[in-house]
Amino acid sequence: MEILMNLLLMLGGVAVFMFGMKQMSSGLEQSAGPGIRNLFKKINKNRTFNYGIGIGATALVQSSSATSIMTVGLAHANIVTVKQGAGFILGSKVGTTLTAFIFALSGIGKGGFSISSVFAALAFVGVMIVFSTENETLNKIAPFLIGFGMLFIGMEVMEMAIGGADSTLSMELSKVFKYEIMQNPILLVILGIFFTAIIQSSTAATGVFIAFLATGVIKNIDQSFFLIMGANIGTCSDGIMASLTTNAKGKRIALFHLLTSIIGSVAFTIILILFRTPVVNIFESLFPGKPQFSLATFNLVYNTLYTLVLLFFLDPLVNLVERLIQEKQQKQEELTYIDERFLKTPAIAVEQVLKELYDMATLAKENLNRSFASLVNEDMSESKKIAEVEERINFLTNELTSYYIKISSVTKSAEDEKLIGGLHHVTNDIERLGDYAVLLFNGASDMKKSDVQFLDQTKEELSQIYEHITEMFDLGFDAFTTRKTENFRKIAKLHKEIKKLISSTRNEHVVHLSSGMYPVEVSKTIYSVLFFLQRISDHIVNVAFSIRSTTGSETEALQAVEREKKEVENTGRKFSSDSNGEK
Questions:
Q1: Which residue, 70, 376, 399, 418, is the most exposed by fewest CB within 10 angstroms?
Q2: Whole-prediction pTM value?
Q3: Cellular component per GO (predicted)?
Q4: How far is CA 53 from CA 92, 113, 509, in A?
Q5: Is the dihedral of CA 69, 70, 74, 77 positive or negative?
């Protein structure tokens, strides 16, 4: 009965440990969201650079599974090439090894002092922050502290349940690893694969193996080495599952992850079998009596060496996975950038939304150009294309709106929440731009059916208005994309100029109509077109100013810019005053 109770307590410790791991990873992602977003933006063609980014991003979230799933999604969305993602994947294998050293600290103490207990108390600090303050910065740090503390609570519970090397449960569990069959390297690697695939985390598996070493359940350190190499393959299961619904690029990344993990494990298993005694002696001599640190060091050395070697052979490996998985023709109606997988990292999900939204805006602009050209050139040949693009814009509107709700349900960042609120309005504005493109084309179509035309003077006046709209569109979406306000004054000036030109054209039309230069049938179309152009310019302004006003208010946005300018000036004056005072 005692063994059963201790075994149940050990499983409870594993549960607390795994939940702490998830909480810590979530807390790191929340507090380091902008940093992760910036790292992903820097992925380029340099394999070594991407390798470094993979190390950095994984060190931030402490989950190679999360970064591998993210890379699968990025490749699926055509944000990164397979070669770029491959370099990133190799780096992620090294980035996750840091956690093993943190786990190895469990149980390290001197006299009555236990560093594990100190770390465990951080969970209490995190809880107190949650219940006692509204400070946004502290509340971003709190989930990490709670998760980090729970890791050590879980480790302590596991070690307490197992007991010392001479405890009943420890001796019973250690018997399993004493069987002759458990000395078989291949079997140990397979056990590591299955154990990690079941618990869905190589980091958590490493923590369990370290606990077994610290309590004497595993006495031969080389057994843990083989288990770790198996765990390195088992962690690929997340990426494989994530890739099942992706295109060929996403599947290639998952296959590359699996293939390189197998190559690394096979190579080091052979090396360890051939040089078992000297390798074990080296790592044991590094940390006498501290086998958990020996395992953490082996994990780092093993992942670093084989990934650096494979980085050198990146091109042939990428070519291999590309040959094994062929491209298939994509469906016409699918999302380019956003994906459910990105919701695990809201900071990246927001970044992908901005890209999808910019593409949607580009489609709206292209349709406006087609419609306006049809209006002034009396050419109806683009009707099918305009209808197809409008259908695409409506599809994106629905998908983006749904995705915003999903991001809001998972993000804990006040900044992202505010941005998402503004993006709801921007999406609606872009969707209306698409609608006005269709309305402009319908006006052109009605004139064609009625066999009436604009005067050349009217065409020139409308073209002048549309040139201003095109310029404002470029300035407005540059402001939206870069999140910068330098173009605000010029956009506001163009907006006023467009209003004046529309008013002038409307007055000219009244003169033309009264003098009999226009048939009555054209009157309705001209008024409608001028109204459409006015509303198009209004929606572009809303999009541009949305970066400083959730609703896109021109007045509110300009006032916000003025406040920011004054704050910068006041800070500069204060700094100058302080500097003079020091002198």
A1: 418
A2: 0.57
A3: plasma membrane
A4: 8, 37, 61
A5: positive
